[in-house]
Amino acid sequence: MLSAKNITLSFGKRVLFDEVNINFVKGNCYGVIGANGAGKSTFLKILSGEIEPNKGTVEITPGERLAVLKQNHFEFDACTVLNTVLMGHKKMWEVMHEREKIYAKEDFTEEDGMTAAHLEAEFGEMGGYEAESNAGSLLSSLGVTEQFHQSLLQDIPGNMKVRVLLAQALFGNPDILLLDEPTNGLDIETIGWLENFLADYENIVLVVSHDRHFLDSVCTHVSDVDRTKIKTFTGNYTFWYESSQLMSRQITDKNKKVEEKRQALLDFIARFSANASKSKQATSRKKALEKLTIEQIEPSNRKYPGVIFQPLREVGNQILNVENLSKSIDGRLLFSKVSFSINKGDKIAFFSRDPLAVTNFFEIINGNIAIEKGKFEWGTTITKAYLPLENNDFFSEGLSLMEWLRQYVPPHVTDADEPFLRGFLGKMLFSGDDILKKTNVLSGGEKVRCMISRMMLQNPNLIILDQPTNHLDLESIQSFNEGCQTFPGIVLLTSHDHTFMQTVANRVIELTPKGIIDRLMSFDEYIEDERIHQLREEMYH
Fold first, then answer.
1. Which of 43, 108, 364, 398 lies 20 to 30 Å from 35, alpha-carbon distance?
2. Minimal CA–CA distance to 265: which of 237, 297, 288?
């Protein structure tokens, strides 16, 4: 068991945690959620001993081993990939080096022999003799091929470092596993492998992630960091979100009879419990939900932004035609022979194995990058709004939020007074004196929320989103996702957020060096189709 008792932590006048008491037990995976700045990562650092609280203690059952996914990608640069993973089992690594020192002695004594024998036994009990083989298999499972295993960490590609550090945390079956944003930098296949790994994991897991699909796949419980406290709820993220929203609506609806409310909640729990049987953690989650009582469901205290795109006019028959577009960077072919047309009702998920491909494609069709080959043409009825991957150029001047948004008022708006602009900023949770904030001091999440305000102001009938969830908290991601689902216009989207892609898109286009794969289906159907999988392999090789 892992326990936090009376944990209190403050930075100056700001209290992050106040008398937090919480237990984490074996067999459960806890998704640690909370708004940006609530203290999710800090709490994991307290549990691992990296940060000392002002008050309180962390207790681990004696003999149990705790492992942490490291965020410092340079800490092990001078180590080989394989050794970096082996270091994940700290005690075994120490024993391994202690015995090597003894065997290297020139004056090897009888006492040294007895010590070595003791170390050999300890080393064997910890699985030391199979350690290198197990570490190699783990690395290969995470997509780090054998050719890199003896390379120094500083010499391998940046996206592979994340996988090596993840392997380090997972190595040796730790009793307690702390994972902070483990899916960052991972592709769809590797995330799927990690979901399956954690679903079968029988020890304690705590995970901080903004990836709702990942949280839903692996978590049996949600630990909500809010208002200096942490409360744990049974179920995955979607269950927590939907049940808390249902409870919140029922509390505000004074006319409903108590028994009707109770029955609605019971029906909801029963329905979700039945759905749990299809999940990767079916047994443990189903059992947990069956024990759940209505009293354990509470409304969320969170504030959710209002993301509402209202088109000024409907799209016409011609939306976008693309013919034979190609793009290379430094001799690397990102995509070629890209030809397609967009139809009414399309919400398209774009993706590629090359992280630069979709961004460059979006920049081309928005007129920000010159065409190398091919052409594209927008329909005359289209009013588009674009959320680019990089937005720093929009915030170089130190304008107030009000002044900043006023720049983007479209010609059809004739009366953009302060209350009008406040309305758009207020929907994105900028209220009161927030509108006087200077744009050059905004956080990453605040900048994205400003960009969404700018998009809503355009009254677009087509939106283009390049990694829309970057820098956003779960509340903003949830609202943005729902806003795109209900949007009556066209959506062109790429995202690392699996749930966003699955719930919004009805068509998938994959950009490859040998052309495109274009299918009218959901994102899940696309990535699970074996015939498409074989075709994808051919298109990249």
1. 398
2. 297
Residue 254 or residue 128, greater confidence: 128
Closest CA to 213 of 188, 176, 246, 245: 188
Neighbours of 487 (CB within 10 A): 20
* Domains along the chain with CATH numbers: 2-233 (3.40.50.300), 320-540 (3.40.50.300)
List phi, psi (to 5°) of 429: 70, 20
- Measured in degrees and rounded to the nearest 5, phi and psi for residue 66 equal -110, 135
Rounded Cα gap, residues 142 and 114, in angstroms: 39
Residues with Cβ within 8 Å of residue 531, at least 6 apart in sequence: none
* Residue-by-residue DSSP string for 2-30: EEEEEEEEEETTEEEEEEEEEEE-TT-EE
Using an 8 Å Cβ cutoff, are 361 and 335 in contact?
A: yes
Q: Which residues pair with 66 in a beta bridge?
A: 176
Looking at residue 278, its pLDDT comes to 46
What share of the chain in percent tops pLDDT 90? 60
For residue 350, the cross-strand partners are: 509
Quickly tell me which residue has 């309180």 as its tokens.
Answer: 56
DSSP 92-151: HHHHHHHHHHHHT-SS--HHHHHHHHHHHHHHHHTTGGGHHHHHHHHHHHTT--GGGTTS
What residue type is assigned to position 165 of the chain?
L
* Of the listed ranges 133-137, 240-244, 306-310, 464-468, the one predicted with least confidence: 240-244
Burial 79-94 (b: 16+ CB within 10 A, else e): bbbbbbbbbbbeebbe
Q: Which residues contact 104 (CB under 8 A, 6 or more apart)?
A: none
The confidence score (pLDDT) of residue 290 equals 60
Rg of the chain in Å (alpha carbons):
26
pLDDT, position 254:
58
Give me 309's structure tokens. Answer: 């795109």
Question: What gap in Å lies between CA 167 and CA 137, rounded to an integer?
Answer: 10
Angle, helices 110-125/90-103, rounded to nearest 10 degrees: 150
| Cα gap 342→427, rounded to integer Å | 30
The overall pTM is greater than 0.85: no
Report which residue type is found at 507: R
Crossing angle for the helix pair 258-276 and 282-290, to the nearest 10 degrees:
160
Distance between CA atoms of 141 and 164, rounded to whole angstroms? 11
* Start-to-end Cα distance in the chain: 48
514: DSSP letter? T
Taking alpha carbons only, the member of 140, 146, 133, 236 closest to residue 190 is 140
Among the ranges given (48-52, 262-266, 346-350), the one the predictor scored with the smallest mean pLDDT: 262-266
